[in-house]
């Protein structure tokens, strides 16, 4: 019985010591701050990980995340300077930079902090986008656009949305939307002991009721561009055809001229040969006789059996037996 009482006493002492130990110590992790309060006031902030000591029943400890926090902003509608409605959906990366301010202003509550971040960021989005046209907004959605390589539509951006112009190259870059939002947020969160590291736009789109009209306008613009390219191509094709036809005409004219010259030379040679062959009277008479026979033969072709000749014709004399 004594041994049982002794065992129970040891167990009670152990748990009592454990309770006392846990009430006077606390552990801080690598990714958190520990804020020690005494009678509701901040006594100290522990930033290094490890085991720490506090006064039991007098001091309390609140844990605050030290690592980066993610907050997804609710999707919202905003209006551009040219009165176009856009849907914006963004997320925020933020962190606690001053645990004391965070505790004093927001009671070390991350949900309360996200509520303040929501208001500040939404105002920044609204202010930024309301000073931009829809085209400027779409342009600044991308990372540093070089105006020298974009469509002509982007060349009308106003100076207020231009970051800088390179003096050497003359290239102008557009500040991306996230950068502009961070500039508008500025140091507004410092009073709460927090900092916004990044604001990224997930969705930048048109309302459903506006998409059809915008898509139709885009289709019309692309069709106009296609028509311009087609007209330009047809013009170039016509130029090439005209040039080719002209070259072919010149080549044919030259070829015909060469052919006529060759034929003329051949006929002249033929006549020279005939002239040499029938250079005396007897040969000339024989030649005329042969030519007359050829003429008669040609006249009696195609079924013709009747031939009309003058009685003084040499051929008639042959047929009549005139010597």
Overview of the structural elements:
The protein is α+β, with helices and mostly antiparallel strands and about 325 residues long. The protein folds into 4 domains: about 1-65, no CATH class; about 70-205, 2-Layer Sandwich (Tetrahydropterin Synthase, Chain A); about 210-275; about 280-323. It is about 50% helix and about 20% strand. It has 8 helices and 11 strands. It has helices at about 1-25, 100-105, 110-130, 135-140, 175-185, 210-275, 280-300, 315-320; strands at about 25-30, 30-40, 40-45, 50-55, 60-65, 70, 75-80, 85-95, 160-165, 170-175, 195-205. Strands 6, 7, 8 and 11 form a 4-stranded antiparallel β-sheet that branches. The chain has a 3-stranded antiparallel β-sheet with strand order 3-2-5, with helices on one face. Helix 3 (about 110-130) crosses helix 5 (about 175-185). The N and C termini lie far apart (about 185 Å).
Which key features would you list for this structure?
323 residues; alpha+beta; Tetrahydropterin Synthase, Chain A; 4 domains; four-stranded antiparallel β-sheet; three-stranded antiparallel β-sheet; 8 helices; 51% helix; rod-shaped
